[in-house]
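Dear Dr. L.,

I hope this message finds you well. Following up on our conversation about the binding site, I have prepared a predicted three-dimensional model of the protein together with PMV. For your records, I am including the exact sequence and ligand specification that went into the calculation, followed by the structure tokens. Please feel free to forward this to your student if that is useful.
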Amino acid sequence: MIETTAPGKIILFGEHAVVYGQPAIAIPVSQLRTRVVITDDAPYSVLDLPDLGGQFPITAKPMEGEEPLMAAVREVQAYLGLSQLPPMRITLTSDIPIASGLGSGAAAACAIVRGLLRHFAQDATNETVNELVYNVEKLYHGTPSGIDNTVVTYEQPLFFMRGKEGKGVREAFTVGAPLQLLIADTGVKSPTLVAVGDVRRQWLDAPEQFERLFAACGEIARRARGAIERGDLLEVGRLMVENQAVLRAMTVSSAELDTLVDTALAAGALGAKLSGGGRGGNMIALVTNESQEAVAAALSRYSHNVLQTTLH
Ligand code: PMV
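The resulting structure of the complex is given below.
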């Protein structure tokens, strides 16, 4: 039996602009995980997704409209040159909410890819896994920057810049003082592909205006890295508020996200912004020991799912 897991993630700074070459900061959320178990107890090869209530036979050739997670299996098949998988059961379970900006798709692909490579006793280095997960992300997202696959594969906080074929510039950074974050779900599912496509259309219509917005996000991400390294939490919070204003100008916020941001700030958060593709999904707020309880209570009035995570 092979068992692998992969974490969720949040983008602290720079989503969307990172697609256009600006730096962004992402961190893993290790308490939210996707698990894959591979066993030999099946008469044929099957992808078992109990959370989605389905078992999907792994056919030799891809079928039209097949379960999207099958793409991760196909990617490994192609990498290993296997026309058909031997009988096996690949069971995937996850506690990462889907289509919420928490990287559920990347984490699922990562756990499947790593599990299958290990099953076939193949090189499952982070570099190989990252490359294959990026290929899967391309199917989900169209023009992914590579930040999601990279942060869930390496499971470390990253200052990231897009590179060729998902091989971005990946810099680890130090954290001067722990960042206590609350993650609140709007409950609105929002596929990243749609938000990314809308930003692209607006950029094509008004390139200069959007280039300026992207550059502003890049500058915020660079300053945020310095503030995180120095442990300057007030500045990190201010920069989150600035980043949120730019994301609103890109039209990727929403009424629900704005309500959560305003609620967090009014209850004493140092900063708050959407995280990920936007239009729905999650909002993140920076809190302290003193403000955490009040902010979480205020957010719970509008969100059914408020999580806490700390970046050390
Ligand atoms: O997968 P999400 O919703 O967390 O968004 C990914 C971040 C984007 O910058 C919007 C897209 C990308 O490929 O970087």
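In brief: The first strand starts at residue 2 and ends at 13.

With kind regards,
A. P.
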